Amino acid sequence: MTLTKRVIPCIDVDLDENGDAAVYTGVNFEDLEYTGDPVELAKKYNEAGADEFVFLDITASADGRETMLSVVEDVADEVFIPLTVGGGIRDTDDIKETLRAGADKVSINTGALERPALITEGAKAFGSQCIVISVDARRRFDEGGEHYVDVDGESCWFECTVKGGREGTGIDVVEWAAEAEERGAGELFVNSIDADGTKDGYDLPLTGAVCDAVSTPVIASSGCGEPKHMLEAFESGADAALAASIFHFEEYTIGEVKAYLDERGVPVRL
């Protein structure tokens, strides 16, 4: 039986100047622009036929604060599809509280890189299906990596970053993805800092390199500007494709994207 490919809208949530939760959209993780209310967008995408929904608190780790769980609860009340929540998750108590707030899965980046045992502990306590390891990848064209691919004729590796892409770690993304899978991660969420917000397409060398290294489902993220880009991500091996801007600004509907994919032989839930 062929598994359907998933189309997933994502909201990046931060606190506005009044301390209220708001959705923002940026380019290369910077120049954030107010986009809407998280609860209203969640309701919209649930009704539009999204396969899943992702809520990312984009400054929780950098600011050293917990994820805004009260907002997660409000979002969970509006969506009846799998909900993934990430941002500021550092230990199993954070995982438990996020799941209790209504999340079906938690997305962990900085916390897992700082203490990889968190993946093992989370998978053992709550099941691998709940543990999504998120990677904010950045292209590097030096000799510091472990796994190299050809990008426009140059040898490139991908570095894991933390705190919303603000700090490099020196850790090779492909090596880390394989370790995360071995430790029990149920899914890998691969973001590209270089492609983020550009609408020029996913970082296909990055997506392909991770998909080739693991058997765990991979979500391609960052750079989607049109349905064709999702098709390319699926052809590179991704199991799901995530997008924000094209849905937030109503350039395409989820139905239009799925119809495009279906016409080209990609198995999707219509």
Explained architecture:
- This protein is of the alpha/beta class and 270 residues long.
- The protein has one domain: Aldolase class I (TIM Barrel), CATH 3.20.20.
- Helix content is 34%, strand content 29%.
- The chain has 11 helices and 13 strands.
- Strands 1-4-5-6-7-11-12-13 form an 8-stranded parallel beta barrel, surrounded by 7 helices.
- Strand 12, helix 9 and strand 13 (240-243) form a beta-alpha-beta unit.
- Helix 9 packs across helix 11.
- The longest helix has 11 residues, at 38-48.
- The relative contact order is 0.15.
Q: What is the second-level CATH architecture?
A: Alpha-Beta Barrel
Indicate the percent of residues in helices.
25-40%
- Which fold does the CATH topology refer to? TIM Barrel
CATH class group: Alpha Beta
Mean pLDDT: 91
Domain count: the total is 1
Main β-sheet: number of strands, strand sense, barrel status?
8 strands, parallel, barrel
Active site: 12, 136
Subunit structure: Heterodimer of HisH and HisF.
Pfam families: His_biosynth
Subcellular location: Cytoplasm
